[in-house]
Amino acid sequence: MASKTFHRYFPTKGYALYWILFVYLVVGFFYPIIGLLALVCMVAPVAFAVKKGRWWCGNACPRGNMYDRLLAKYSPHKPIPKFLRSFGFRLFMVMFIFMMFGVQMYFAWGDLSAMGKVFWNIIFATTVVGVVLSFIYAPRTWCSFCPMGTLSSWSSPRKPKLPKGFVNIHVSERCQMKCKSCARVCPMQLTPYDSRGVAVGYLHPDCIKCGKCVSACPIKIMSLQH
Question: Helices 112-136 & 62-69, crossing angle to 10 degrees?
Answer without folding.
Answer: 20
